[in-house]
Amino acid sequence: MGNIKSCLFDLDGVIVDTAKYHYKAWKRLCNELGFDLTIDENENLKGISRAESLDILLKKGNVRLSDEKREMYMERKNNWYLEYVEQMSPGEALPGSLDFLKACKDAGYKVALGSSSKNALRILEKIDVLHLFDAVIDGTKVSKGKPDPQTFTLGAEATKAHPSECVVFEDSIAGIEAGIAGGMYTVGVGDPETLERANLVISGFENVGLEIFEKF
Ligand code: B16
Ligand code: MG
């Protein structure tokens, strides 16, 4: 269908809602540091790496830390986050997302993950979808986080597709910007106003089929 060869999927907010676990763990850390984190403020952390997220939060709370302490707090937050991840099961995939992934595979498209998370492999295992991916680009493989396009450029390379043959599925503004900067088509998953820069915005994968590729 159309020009597309590879589908590059973000993880948090597209395949699974791990944002709620990131939020709980970051909020706990903020509280420990003496300030609070609201659900609205958490929106700004979506798609952003762990280290950059901590920097944003420390600035907000007006807290200065040594590099050593920053590492310690990031590890602490991640350990709390992983406690939630370990409780995850296949039922936690977002509605329709796994059917859409399988439909892409069955129709012969290459499927790659493009996530900022260093825990992506573990999450894919927990929801039992790792076998569906031709390539996994995650936070352990990139030196520049979204909105830099590197995550998706590596996904295109790994699936042997030109950027113009790739479509990026993303829930975050930073991720849509990364796809655009990489010269790819972008599908926003979420609110059309927030993700207005995407070529197309869907509210989720329920009742969405491969006909959306006809637009590209
Ligand atoms: P970790 P995505 C992102 O995942 C999350 O949206 C973001 O909130 C998180 O800070 C980042 O992964 C790093 O995650 O701490 O597990 O390495 O949306 O790019 O799949
Ligand atoms: Mg995301």
Q: Describe it for me?
A:
This protein is α/β, with parallel strands linked by helices and 216 residues long. The protein folds into 2 domains: 6-17 and 93-215, Rossmann fold (3-Layer(aba) Sandwich); 19-85, DNA polymerase, domain 1, CATH 1.10.150. It contains 8 helices and 6 strands; from the N terminus they run E-H-H-H-H-H-E-H-E-H-E-H-E-E. It has a 6-stranded parallel sheet with strand order 3-2-1-4-5-6. Strand 2 (110-114), helix 6 (120-126) and strand 3 (135-137) form a beta-alpha-beta unit. Helix 1 (19-32) packs across helix 4. The chain is globular. The mean pLDDT is 96. Bound molecules: 1,6-di-O-phosphono-beta-D-glucopyranose and magnesium ion. The site of magnesium ion has 9 residues, from loops. The site of magnesium ion (MG) has 9 residues, from loops.
What topology does this entry show?
Layout: E1 6-9, H1 19-32, H2 39-43, H3 50-61, H4 67-86, H5 97-106, E2 110-114, H6 120-126, E3 135-137, H7 150-158, E4 166-170, H8 173-181, E5 185-189, E6 200-202
Parallel strand pairs: 1-2, 1-4, 2-3, 4-5, 5-6
Bound molecules: 1,6-di-O-phosphono-beta-D-glucopyranose and magnesium ion.
1,6-di-O-phosphono-beta-D-glucopyranose (B16) binds next to helix 1 and helix 3.
Please name the defining characteristics of this protein.
alpha/beta; Rossmann fold; DNA polymerase, domain 1; 6-stranded parallel β-sheet; 8 helices; 12% strand; binds magnesium ion
